[in-house]
Amino acid sequence: MLKKMFAAVLMTLSTAAIAVPFGSQSILVVEDGTGKVLLEKNANVVVPIASLTKLMTAMVVLDSKANMKEEISIDQDDVDTLKHSTSRVPVGATLTRHDVLQLALMSSDNRAAASLARTYPGGPTAFAVAVNAKIKALGMRQTVIEEPTGLSPNNQSTAADLVKMAVAASRYPEISRITTDSKDVIQIKGRDVEYHNTNRLVGAKGWDIGLSKTGFTNEAGRCLIMRIKSAGKFATMILLNARANSVRAMDAVNIRRLLAAENGVEEPRVVRTAATVKATAKARRHKKAPVKASRRRRAD
Asked: Would you say domain 2-286 falls under CATH 3.40.710.10?
């Protein structure tokens, strides 16, 4: 039955909407290695990408060969004055560039990402040049990235472009490792502080994840880039503009089921994780509800 459902998804999106209610505005699932498109929905629609931006920031920083052991300080200039998002990294904290990268990718800290651009070799201007060169090199023709955090709604792309970025990012062992850490303890001003991955599927039972990055702003909705292994094969998924965390999580669960069905494996009907145990009920509740978030709500 699941295999027939997957075939229906590939044949027509309207049929998929009946069989599997995907809630993300844009979806693209591509089989790694072959590049075969397994699932597509509005893949060429240009939308804000929020903190998915940070994968680009990380690649450019690593490409620069900057000293990852060098200590850098979080500056007042790194504070978010656009969305006024919160951060657990105080101004004045001094960390190694490696730890700053860890915070920017794993817990999606905006001050950390901003400091990576500010301390980039040659400064913010050189960082912007490097980002634009990377975008061009990856063939991301519908992508604009104006700043390193994703807080600006002017950072825009498509699912089709973002899969190129995701595949490129997965080739960096450090990015793959950091984005699949479920948590880490980092010393901040002399005390140990525990930080967690913004994607609760990372480390959850039954999930084999090779790359992960979440994103959220009011304009972008809930976004996710994730490389997963299902039935022995890897695939990269892009989910953009879901209305709620539960909707985004449920889309990821349904995609994993469809991937398993494509490979002749039937997964359990219920996948119980911290992120998805209440996802079905919440997804129904949020299906027609507008996005509501206070200005102080944490963007990731």
From this structure: yes
